[in-house]
Amino acid sequence: MADWEIRKLHILRTLRERGTVTATAEALRMTPSAVSQQLTNLSRQLGVDLLRAEGRRVRLTDAALLVLRHADAVFERLERAEAELAAYTRGEAGEVRVGAFPTAVPALVVPAVTALRAAHPGVTVRVREAEAREAYELLGGGDVDLALSLAAQAPSAVDPRFTRVPLLADPLDAALPRGHPLAAAEDLRLADLAAEPWIFGDGGPWADITRAACEAAGFRPHRGHAATGWTAILAMVEAGMGVALVPRMAAADRDGVAMRELRADRPVRHVVAAVRRGAGDAPAIRRVLTALRTAAAALA
After folding, report:
1. Which pairing describes strands 51-54 and 57-60: parallel, antiparallel, or unpaired?
2. What is the C-alpha to C-alpha distance for residues 161 and 199, in angstroms, rounded to an integer?
3. SS (H, E, C) the chain
4. Most buried residue, 117, 166, 214, 244, by CB count within 10 Å?
5. How far is CA 208 from the centre of its chain?
């Protein structure tokens, strides 16, 4: 029987994800030569070529992809075994490390942690603020147990490494200066604001969401000012410099800002949680997911 070493399979899996030996070495805190040596040993042990040189890069062979299909199942089973062992040895006690994007921390994570402290004091939550890319790198590397992001920034639902859990369809409201003629208009539609200067960033998911929502309403938004932080955006709206779309979970009370619900063509952004595939069976992680769902339902 071939010698299937978990450590070496993990290195091969990481190479598939990172693309180069150098990036794999950085991710695993190894030297490139050590990565190459371990993969060469694995190739020899399995009796197949796993890598093919293409110039200065390497490519996974069909045999390597076959091995990885089985390795993904092996890692899932190991996660499930660890989860079941945690259920046996700790019951409801345990630590869950959460990586979450900035607006999710006060809106979802903090209420969930507060509820858990009262209902399940043995479950400890460690929170790390992180944008989607970093959060999923941390999740894949085992540095966090649960990641929160926008669905648009999450890995594919068929990614063999992760299980996605829908949490919230977060409505986007229109932010207008309090004295704007449309601030008190009945049945405000997004298209009513087509001629206004808009405030959103140069790029990234929020700029894409704003443009997509406006285009779905029949117009391309004219950006009057560029900003990415909600404090800056709402301050400019309050000063009468333009209008903006603001997710409800990020909105803050400002005397000079009118937050208007868009009923007819209300856009939403979807928030998801993700865990490593198989790890969702761990009781502490289940508790945190349940608390996050409850917080999301209250927010909705």
Report:
1. antiparallel
2. 37
3. CCCCCHHHHHHHHHHHHHCCHHHHHHHHCCCHHHHHHHHHHHHHHHCCCCEEEECCEEEECHHHHHHHHHHHHHHHHHHHHHHHHHHHHHCCCEEEEEEECCCHHHHHHHHHHHHHHHHCCCEEEEEEECCHHHHHHHHHCCCCCEEEEEHHHCCCCCCCCEEEEEEEEEEEEEEEECCCCCCCCCCCCHHHHCCCEEECCCCCHHHHHHHHHHHHCCCCCEEEECCCCHHHHHHHHHCCCCEEEEEHHHCCCCCCEEEECCCCCCCEEEEEEEEECCHHHCHHHHHHHHHHHHHHHHHC
4. 244
5. 16
Give the span between the Cα atoms of 153 and 286, in whole angstroms.
23
pTM: 0.69
What is the DSSP pairing of strand 257-260 with strand 162-177?
A: antiparallel
> Rounded CA gap, 278 and 146, in Å?
12
Q: Contact at 8 Å (CB) between 139 and 164?
A: no
pLDDT in tens, 108-167: 999 999 999 998 888 899 999 999 999 999 999 999 999 999 998 888 888 899 999 999
d(CA 148, CA 104): 7
How many C-beta atoms lie closer than 10 Å to residue 67's C-beta?
Answer: 22
First to last CA, the chain: 54
CB 72 within 8 A of CB 161: yes
Give me 181's structure tokens: 């003629």
Q: Are 238 and 93 in contact, with CB atoms under 8 Å apart? A: no
Closest CA to 116 of 131, 98, 102, 128: 98
